[in-house]
Amino acid sequence: MATAQALLELVRWHRPSGRLILLIPAGWALWLNPQAPPSAPLVGWIVLGGLAVSAAGCIANDLWDRRIDPLVERTRNRPLASGRVGVPTAFALLLVCLLAALLVVLALPQAVRSLCLALALATLPPVLLYPSAKRWFPYPQLVLALCWGFAVLIPWAAASGTLAGGWPLLLVWLATLAWTFGFDTVYAMSDRDDDRQVGVRSSALSLGKAAPTVVAGCYAVTAAALGGAALLRGLEGAGFWLAWAIASAGMLREAWQLRRLDLPRSAYGLHFSRQVQLGALLLLGLILASRG
Description:
The protein is mainly alpha-helical. Helix content is about 75%, strand content about 0%. The chain contains 13 helices and no strands. The N and C termini lie far apart (about 50 Å).
């Protein structure tokens, strides 16, 4: 029988940075929405829904990769790969997470519920199929980025009841796609040798030596798009622009460090953790601006 610790590892809740990084774009959307600042109950529902969907995605990923993960150094000790959790248990937990996400949507106000439910259902196919992308698509991180785009669309719809957000919505969605592709490409860089040997694909492998440059470009697009969305929303507080300047410089500095040829594998995981901090700094700036 699977232990509580193994189940926590299956949904990655023993490493909260990966869960927090999904909630950051949702926060960007909520605080760039014309209805900002959002109510506390809405923020709570979005957090719960994001955690449920993120957990479901992790389980689906490990179910797809349960025969590949034992061959990769970073993933060989995951619960399914190591046999600490069985496939039936994983499927059962997946259904629980999906049910929890559905209940969150049904708990939203009636005025926004139908649109949010439609978006939530549209999210399921790419989230559940993303783990297979590494078998047939040279840039599976792009598929993940498209999945994460729903972390912007659903909160925006939940706050305003519409996706008619114009350029601010488009820009925060673009920022999320670029940021996700960038940091997940870096995350895949630690697995390049194993992925090449196993025969699966990643943007880190497909981009080769150009990967650090592309990541830097992604972060530049992220900063420019979020800055543009803030300008269009009329955010003038010095707090946001200071946070924006620090986070933008930090992202580009992190991308520049990837050019080093002597980086240990641990450096790529550290890069991921720093993106959580920098993305959260951007969100903090938006929160401060909305209060100003």
